[in-house]
Specification:
The chain is built from twelve helices and seven strands.
Length: 318
């Protein structure tokens, strides 16, 4: 388009659905002149007229372009959230561990939690991941090509690669590899930003931005599960009230006392979910035979509100 038609599209990587974007403007350009929509950029302006050239810039300064981009992003995010919910509820998943080849079936969380627990390979909580099957295939392909997932160096054989990842503690993915952004829901909330970049922002600014962009949206009927039992609620306020009453865990109070920003709250919740899933008390580190036994311990010992030091859970991978 640049070479043949001298049309420059600004911030192409931020267009959520580029084929639909192109089809839309193809139709509009057939209806009206390109100059009705694009800014004209003249190059070689000091040269003789025959050597000057003009390019046409299409960007979201044009209200019509901005509305189109926002609508495409809205559709993309809705589709991603629906896919995420389907994967949360799916019980037909089948897959093998990338490190010991043990087979797993049921929900994807069984395999992901196994790799985290048994092999110290943590790619985040299952609920934060979308298109999990494709994600696992991508990781397996890299390992089959004898490539370290973290430093991305290639090795001569599987044993050398395995020893390298174990000794160097490289059993994790490279957070700077943008190929992985597509598999984390957070990257669909703000275009052009990785989870690392979003994490650095003040939560008030982020929440203000969300209020602006999400106003008028039709919310999906997605319920949230209690950190300690199977109780569900569609409103986070109701769930917080339940956890305070049933489990003596007051999240709003903890947030206030520790001064947690938005993403620190997310990481704390993720940390607690993982510990509870493993039937481990996050307060005293005691391991139990079942989640029921852990809940009894938390209630009897009052450890639901006993949090470890922040450096135990305030980590990027959580």
């Amino acid at each position: 388009m640049i070479i043949e038609h001298k049309v420059v599209i600004a911030d192409v990587k931020l267009v959520a659905d580029f084929p639909r974007y192109i089809l839309y403007w193809r139709k509009r350009f057939s209806e009206q002149p390109v100059t009705d929509f694009c800014s004209v950029i003249r190059i070689n302006s000091t040269a003789p007229p025959e050597e000057q050239d003009h390019y046409f810039l299409l960007c979201d300064v044009l209200p019509e372009d901005r509305v189109l981009r926002e609508e495409l992003q809205r559709r993309k995010l809705t589709a991603i959230l629906e896919q995420q919910q389907r994967e949360r509820e799916d019980t037909s998943f089948r897959g093998a561990c990338m490190f010991c080849n043990e087979e797993f079936s049921g929900n994807r969380s069984v395999l992901l939690n196994h790799m985290s627990r048994e092999h110290a390979f943590n790619i985040g909580l299952p609920d934060n991941i979308v298109n999990c099957r494709e994600f696992l295939r991508t990781l397996q392909r890299k390992l089959d090509n004898l490539q370290c997932l973290y430093c991305e160096k290639t090795f001569r054989d599987k044993n050398t690669l395995r020893d390298h990842m174990r000794k160097k503690q490289h059993r994790r993915i490279n957070p700077r590899n943008r190929e992985y952004d597509q598999f984390y829901v957070i990257n669909y909330l703000e275009l052009g930003k990785s989870w690392e970049e979003v994490q650095l922002e003040d939560d008030r600014e982020l929440l203000d931005h969300q209020e602006e962009d999400w106003s008028g949206w039709e919310e999906l009927p997605v319920s949230t599960v209690c950190l300690f039992c199977d109780t569900r609620a569609e409103a986070i306020e109701k769930l917080c009230a339940h956890m305070e009453e049933a489990h003596e865990f007051d999240l709003p109070k903890i947030k206030s006392e520790l001064g947690l920003n938005f993403y620190q709250q997310v990481k704390l919740v993720n940390f607690i979910r993982r510990q509870v899933h493993q039937s481990r008390c996050y307060g005293c580190r005691a391991k139990f035979a079942s989640r029921a036994a852990l809940r009894a311990h938390l209630e009897d010992a009052g450890h639901a509100s006993l949090l470890p030091a922040m450096d135990a859970w305030d980590q990027p991978q959580l």
